[in-house]
Write the structure tokens for this entry.
Amino acid sequence: MVITIQAGEGGVMYKRFFGGTVVDNVFTEGLYVIWPWDKLTPYDLRLQALVRDFTVLTAVGLPVTLKMSIRFKPEQSMLGYLHQRVGPGYIDSVVIPEVEAALRRAIGGYSPEAIYTTRKGMLQEIIGEALEPASQKFVIIDDVIIRSVTLPDPIQRAIEEKLVHEQQMQAYVYRLDKELKEVERKRHEAQGIYEYQKKVGESLKDPEILKWLGIQATEKLAESNNAKVVVVGAGKDGLPLILGGN
């Protein structure tokens, strides 16, 4: 008999009269001539994808449905053992049960709200860690991608309403905090204005300050180019009175 192992495949030989399944040799791509009573079974060694819905129970006993894409492939060096102990139906016998078991371990410790609000990347990481033992079953689970998370409609609506109320409360607290800070700012501003006016009022009662301010004003008038009228004799300590012209 002539058997062809196609591209991306590996073959496992079963010898009827010489020891059964050959577990230590994987037949690679190519053309093989075998005895009619023997059997060469091909396996796809390329990365494969399976999309499936899984329904598991949360920590409080409520169901959650995850639509997942699973990427996997047989481990080439263990292909003979996979064929001997599981067979070509390993997807239904190993891949799906292992993923479902990992989901139960990962999801079973979370509440529906935690699952619904947890980032998908984090959830995928948790499930990925739970899937590590699957490699001991001769299959490599390369990755799992969570496409959607579905909760029972009443639970999902309740969670969404709670999240909306929480966001509204956070917005209210933010606005309240903003207003309190504005009140505090205005209080400090008023206190500063009051203290400034108090100091200015006290300084205006000092004759020396008033005389100094008068000197400054007189100097500015005297420096201008306009014609002026100077009135001398404004009292013992008075300043000359300068009246501007045109």
